[in-house]
Amino acid sequence: MDYHILREFADSWVLLAMFVFFLGVVIWAFRPGSRKEHRDTADIIFRHEDKPAEKEART
């Protein structure tokens, strides 16, 4: 394979694949119903603010 063939492939198809991946990530992040999941993740550090966390049994 020649450098120019790889360069043309990267300029066209790889750019398209990266754009599709970007759109997929944006759609996944803003999908319906994800607000609760994002809010829960953001509030993790405040979950046991009043008292220490309960010890869980390890299996």
Describe the structure.
The chain crosses the membrane at residues 12-30. It comes from Celeribacter halophilus. This is Cytochrome c oxidase cbb3-type subunit 4. The chain is an all-alpha fold. It has one domain. 61% of the residues lie in helices and 0% in strands. It is built from 2 helices and no strands. The chain has helices spanning 3-29, 34-42. The relative contact order is 0.06. The mean pLDDT is 84.
- End-to-end C-alpha gap: 55 Å
Main sheet record: none
Global geometry: elongated
How much of the sequence is in beta strands? under 5%
Q: Portion of residues in helices?
A: 55-70%
Protein name: Cytochrome c oxidase cbb3-type subunit 4
InterPro entries: Cbb3-typ_cyt_oxidase_comp
Transmembrane segments: 12-30
Keywords: Membrane, Transmembrane, Transmembrane helix
